[in-house]
Write a structure and sequence with these properties.
Shape: globular
Largest sheet: 8 strands, antiparallel
Structural class: alpha+beta
Oligomer: single chain
Helix content: 25-40%
Mean pLDDT: 94
Distance between the termini: 13 Å
Order of helices and strands: EEHHEEEEEEHH
Strand order of the largest sheet: 1-2-8-7-6-5-4-3
Strand content: 35-45%
Low-confidence stretches: none
């Protein structure tokens, strides 16, 4: 039986940041793989009934993940993550943007800067995420589009995947 953990999301409007914290019942090495290997990301990143589909991924400093979120009716929204810094099994930073199928950034939705930190706990791994925005309006636009609900649902998908992989 999978025990659903709580995804805690808070915002600091003065700093134009969202903070996300979540604990997973799996070792850091496995949680890290789920966040950094496209074959695993595709299995949990999108909230159902949507699916993530990687077009290309190079997880390295200066590399990029180009993927789409595919809806139940086949609609696709492309996104890209440009990896900046990577400290294996500890943290990575990336800039995230909505884009076209070739990876060209669009201005339809705000871009975000992610810092993901992986910390071992007694029972698994805590992932702490700091997401920075250019403006409060950009932050609010992402929240209004359903970020909290979607990312929380995706974390539930990740719980299920981690349970299968152990």
């Amino acid at each position: 039986m999978i025990i659903q953990k709580e995804t805690i999301i808070s915002k600091d409007l003065d700093k134009k940041k969202l903070f996300v914290e979540r604990e997973f019942d799996a070792p850091v090495a496995l949680v890290w793989r789920a966040w950094t290997e496209s074959s695993l990301l595709d299995q949990w990143w999108a909230p159902r009934p949507w699916k993530a589909k990687t077009k290309s991924m190079e997880f390295k400093e200066g590399g990029r993940w180009l993927y789409s979120m595919v809806g139940p009716d086949g609609e696709e929204q492309f996104c890209r993550a440009d990896y900046e810094t990577i400290v294996p099994q500890k943290q990575f930073t990336a800039s995230d943007a909505f884009c076209d199928e070739k990876g060209n950034a669009t201005n339809e939705m705000p871009s975000m800067h992610w810092k993901n930190v992986f910390t071992p706990t007694d029972n698994g791994t805590r992932v702490a995420i700091e997401i920075s925005f250019d403006s409060v309006a950009d932050l609010e636009k992402i929240v209004e589009m359903g970020f909290k609900e979607g990312f929380t649902a995706a974390h539930g998908n990740l719980d299920e995947l981690l349970a299968q992989l152990q």
